[in-house]
Design a protein that fits this description.
Blueprint: H1 3-76, E1 94-101, E2 107-114, E3 120-122, E4 127-130, E5 150-152, E6 157-163, E7 175-177, E8 180-183, E9 191-192, E10 200-202, E11 207-208, H2 215-218
Antiparallel strand pairs: 1-2, 2-6, 3-5, 4-8, 6-11, 7-10, 8-9
């Protein structure tokens, strides 16, 4: 082999080796770039996928908190659950007043107003004790019994009509009394109610109606 041929062969081998090295480096770079790119895409995908879930979770937590706050607020203002039974009116939270009416004659109208912050019911009829020496409560007019118990919202009123004496003078054991105590169902203590004019004439014909929702109904008997 002459010198020229030897140099040509060595040059060719050197070029070939260089080309192989360059190709290997390119392949390595390509693989590394692909790996990095895959990680970025995967991270973005995970981030995008988790974002709605996080938002939903946060939204659910917010809704639960709002519901809890609403319930707490309702309890603060005294709201009662719908299925809670309505209790009897409290004699100490009920305002009573009594007035004389022109028609029918010998009648008084008793008014009871719910002063509590919740609904309450007035069961039956008021127990009346006219005068300190009364031995029994005023009898009730059974014909006046309503179809249902009277329920009062805060500030609402119920009424009872009171016949004080017979219109034709047929009553007996009449006397002038100057005090009245009113008893209501569910309370042991009475409420003292001022008599119109300071006194009233009561005889054996005296009676009281059941609680009514209107003054007109209470004065029907």
């Amino acid at each position: 082999m002459n010198v020229t041929a030897y140099r040509r062969g060595r040059t060719v081998r050197t070029i070939a080796a260089s080309m192989l090295a360059v190709a290997a480096l390119g392949l390595t770079a390509a693989c590394g770039g692909s790996g990095d790119g895959g990680s970025d895409d995967e991270g973005k995908a995970k981030s995008s996928a988790s974002a709605p879930a996080d938002k939903t979770a946060k939204g659910g937590s917010a809704d639960a908190k709002d519901a809890k706050d609403a319930k707490t607020q309702a309890q603060k203002i005294g709201a009662a659950p719908e299925d809670e039974p309505i209790g009897d009116c409290d004699v100490n939270k009920t305002a009573f007043s009594l007035k004389k009416v022109k028609n029918p004659i010998n009648h008084l109208l008793l008014k009871a107003t719910n002063g509590a912050g919740v609904d309450c019911k007035l069961v039956g009829y008021p127990g009346l004790k006219f005068g300190e020496d009364a031995q029994s409560a005023t009898p009730v007019n059974e014909d006046s019994q309503p179809q249902s118990v009277v329920v009062l919202a805060p500030g609402e009123s119920a009424y009872a009509g009171i016949t004080t004496s017979s219109g034709d003078g047929s009553g007996s054991e009449g006397s002038e009394v100057n005090s009245l105590e009113v008893f209501i169902d569910g309370s042991e203590d009475p409420a003292s109610v001022e008599l119109p004019g300071g006194s009233v004439y009561i005889d054996s014909a005296a009676q009281v109606t059941y609680w009514q929702t209107t003054a007109q109904d209470a004065l029907t008997w």
